[in-house]
Amino acid sequence: MNTAFMQMSIPKLRPVSLSDIDEPEDTIVSGGIPVYD
């Protein structure tokens, strides 16, 4: 994974919530934490 992607993704990490589960097309679940691209 390239560093530019990681730098963009890290600030967008947030805890799992019901609203995240309702929007699976916007999330990639990694270790239980959704990562928005």
TrEMBL record:
<protein>
    <submittedName>
        <fullName>Uncharacterized protein</fullName>
    </submittedName>
</protein>
